[in-house]
Amino acid sequence: MNGTTGIQDGYGLYINGQWRPASGGATLESCNPATAERLATIADATKADVDEAAAAARAAFETWSRTPVADRSEALLDIADLVEANLDHLAAVESSDNGKPIRETSGADVPLSVDHFRYFAGCMRADEGSATMTDASTLSIILREPLGVIGQIVPWNFPLLMAAWKLAPALVAGNTVVFKPSSATSLSVLELARLIDGAGILPPGVLNVITGSGGHSGEYLKAADVDKLAFTGSTEVGRGIGLAAAEKIIPATLELGGKSASIFFDDADPDVAVNGVQMGILFNQGQVCSAGSRIFVQASALDRFMEAFSAAFTAVRVGDPLDPRTQMGAQVDERQLTRILDYVEIGKAEGAEVAVGGSRYTQGPLAKGAFMQPTLILGRNDMRIAREEIFGPVGVVIPFEDEDDVVAMANDSDYGLGGGVFTASLDRALRVATRVRTGRIWVNQYNVFPAGAPFGGYKDSGIGRETHKMVLDAYQQTKNILINIGSGPVGLPYGA
Ligand code: NAP
Ligand code: MG
After folding, report:
1. 215: exposed, middle or buried (C-beta count within 10 Å: 0-12, 13-18, 19+)?
2. Has residue 207 been placed in a domain?
3. So what's the pLDDT on residue 5?
4. Cβ contact 257:417 at 8 Å
5. Which has the least CB within 10 A, 2, 168, 318, 347?
6. How far apart are CA 441 and CA 438, in angstroms?
7. What atom in ligand 1 is closest to the CA of residue 336?
8. What SS3 state is found at 67?
9. Cα 476–chain centre separation
10. What is the CATH number of the domain that holds 465?
11. Which residues line the pocket of ligand 1, CB cutoff 6 A?
């Protein structure tokens, strides 16, 4: 056991209701990015392990798919209760492994996960299917059936919450799952599996967790005998998942990257605007796929807003993720921090001006961790820092003149995941919201993720929507049964 967070020294693979090491014996280390200390070892699954997990899920599908929907729904409610009862533990594990502040894990990641399990438990009960008469003698029954074995891969930015988003709809619809967390942050999902296993909520094989690097276990899962792939992560890896699914003729849902436009008109409420820019690019250290990373500010208010934003960014409390007063923690690892710092240099070379921050912390206790200063850079929409995903607390501020100007720049992007409009005029907010080509746009708020509101991307940001009951379509097959209830033959006559 590891200090106060209750993390085990080592974790195995969870296959068919059993914990065991990887068959090759290999392990990886999971670290705390705030201290650079080793937290635990995780297993690096082999191809044989992943295939075994898929076979276990295939066998479990026979009974799980026939388990009454009321019981599957009840299982989700039990999981939600279990996560809720272990909120402090899971929040501490997540903050230690990922570096995100405990006020976020205990106030957002874990409670949102609880709510997602409850939401999908309810949705599934409310989906009764449908039947209709297509003509006087034909009854059409539309049946929804689970797809089978689902391979799910998630990134490191919201490890537990992404698990909830993926597991809840898949399991409640009657599928079985082989789940792969990121090797950088596997511990919260392993703890979730340990809790579910301990409580005996799911039959063996319904949920399998395989860990290891993306290049190993991720590739093996892509190639495994599964009936659907569900992926959240980078556009580059997502494209490979889509290609693998096309080869197998199975569906894939992809939640990918973003470079979202957060638009501030001169009539925006100053306090709401400051909160919006902070939630947009500092929440989760800016490691949010829908981060408001392009900050468009109306030129008439640029000086006023820059002053307010800069003061707010400088005042943010960056520090120990486990301290409840901390507002921004560590980036997920040194590699990610290096990537962010490289982008700041790229921006400078392109002629952008760093207005606030721009560096890591080199003094005091933060020097040993992957801590980045909240950063604002004055730039242009054609710069690489405005086109490529930085995935850190680095906002690129770009001035604009009017609605047409800002809508054109917002849409001049390969991505279309999130976005925000800040203004006192609801008409204007709705005009802009309907013109920006993106899957989610917030008005006078940013980066809130309620269950029941669909989330997903246009363009290179992905295919499919999550966090809404419509994702159940992506986890089910449709079967149509047509029944002749007339008193004689139907169709074209073949008699003499
Ligand atoms: P990533 O490299 O694409 O990794 C995502 C997941 O895929 C991880 O579990 C990773 O495993 C695995 N993986 C890596 N290479 C693989 C391969 N060749 N085959 C199969 N799986 C593989 O992304 P990331 O850099 O960790 O995460 C950040 C990205 O995710 C950003 O681009 C962000 O925008 C996106 N994101 C999108 C959403 C959304 O909802 N749209 C949400 C969160 C994040 P390892 O980590 O173990 O290598
Ligand atoms: Mg870690």
Report:
1. exposed
2. yes
3. 76
4. yes
5. 2
6. 7
7. 25
8. coil
9. 21
10. 3.40.605.10
11. 153-157, 180, 182-184, 213-215, 218-219, 222, 232-234, 237, 240, 255-258, 289, 389, 391, 417, 457, 462
Rounded to an integer, what distance in angstroms lies between the CA atom of residue 473 and that of residue 144?
A: 9
* Mutation choice for ligand 1 from 162, 178, 232, CB with most ligand atoms inside 8 A: 232
* Domain-embedded: residue 2: no
Q: According to DSSP H, which parts of 200-252 are helical?
A: 219-223, 235-248
Identify the residue whose C-alpha is closest to ligand 1 atom 18. 215
- Summarised one tens digit per residue, pLDDT across range 51-87 is 999 999 999 999 999 999 999 999 999 999 999 999 9
Confidence (pLDDT) at 4: 55
Please give the Cα distance from 158 to 180 (Å, whole number): 13
Rounded to two decimals, what is the model's pTM? 0.97
What confidence tens digit (pLDDT) does each residue in 375-384 have?
A: 999 999 999 9
Residue 2 has pLDDT above 80, yes or no: no
Parent domain of 65: 10-256+461-480
Question: What pLDDT score does 496 carry?
Answer: 72
Residue 487 lies in a domain: no
Is 239 in the same domain as 106?
A: yes
Paired sense of beta strands 176-180 and 462-463, if any: unpaired
Handedness of CA 213, 219, 223, 227 (dihedral sign): positive
Amino acid letter, 238: G
Whether 157 and 82 share a structural domain: yes
Is there a contact between 287 and 332 (Cβ–Cβ < 8 Å)? Answer: yes
Regarding whether 370 and 401 lie in a shared domain, the answer is yes
Kindly list the distances between the CA atom of residue 196 and the CA atoms of 85, 112, 125, 188, 190, in Å, as whole numbers in the listed order: 12, 18, 22, 12, 10
Q: How far apart are CA 380 and CA 211, in angstroms?
A: 41
304 and 174 together in one domain: no
Q: What is the CATH number of the domain that holds 400?
A: 3.40.309.10
Query: 246 and 275 in one domain?
Result: no
